[in-house]
């Protein structure tokens, strides 16, 4: 099913959503103003995207436990966000074609991405992870732990590698938002 045909879609009229975006399952997808979703993205479950979020090509959102992405965040091409993960112990069946009653040990936990977060390409976010405001995740990273505010993490598994300049970023944001006065934001 195409995302644009999905009855659970609530999108700002200012959002841009590729007609090649797909949705499977049940839930809701909420898309904020000036957010752009590019070709080949797949959504399941419930996903909330703030304003001015960029979802580049081929991102996947497994949102059965919920995924939130804050304003002004930019995701990485081919990135995957897991709010659920199958059980590998053998105590559960696996996959979306099996009813949940046969998947008792599936790991489900909401994923939270704060505002002003930046991702490199091909990042993987595991259930329960929070990337706090201003965090950044390097390309090809596996994120299994939270990322503090204005911190850069990278690697497999991701670890802290630096910090971002909050003051400089916020000054540019104020300048940008000031340039929008009188313009449809």
Overview of this protein structure:
The protein has 185 residues and is mainly beta. The chain has a single domain, classed as UDP N-Acetylglucosamine Acyltransferase, domain 1 (3 Solenoid). 8% of the residues lie in helices and 35% in strands. The protein has 1 helix and 19 strands. The protein has one helix at 166-179, and strands at 9-11, 16-17, 22-24, 29-31, 36-37, 42-49, 54-55, 60-69, 80-82, 84-85, 107-108, 111-113, 118-119, 124-125, 130-131, 136-137, 142-143, 151-155, 158-163. Strands 1, 3, 4, 6, 8, 9, 12, 14, 15 and 17 form a 10-stranded parallel sheet that branches. The protein has a 4-stranded mixed sheet with strand order 13-16-18-19, with no helix packed on it. A 3-stranded parallel sheet has the order 2-5-7, with no helix packed on it. The model has no long low-confidence stretch (mean pLDDT 94).
List the helices and strands and how they pair.
Blueprint: E1 9-11, E2 16-17, E3 22-24, E4 29-31, E5 36-37, E6 42-49, E7 54-55, E8 60-69, E9 80-82, E10 84-85, E11 107-108, E12 111-113, E13 118-119, E14 124-125, E15 130-131, E16 136-137, E17 142-143, E18 151-155, E19 158-163, H1 166-179
Parallel strand pairs: 1-4, 2-5, 3-6, 4-6, 5-7, 6-8, 8-9, 8-12, 9-14, 12-15, 13-16, 14-17, 16-18
Antiparallel strand pairs: 10-11, 18-19
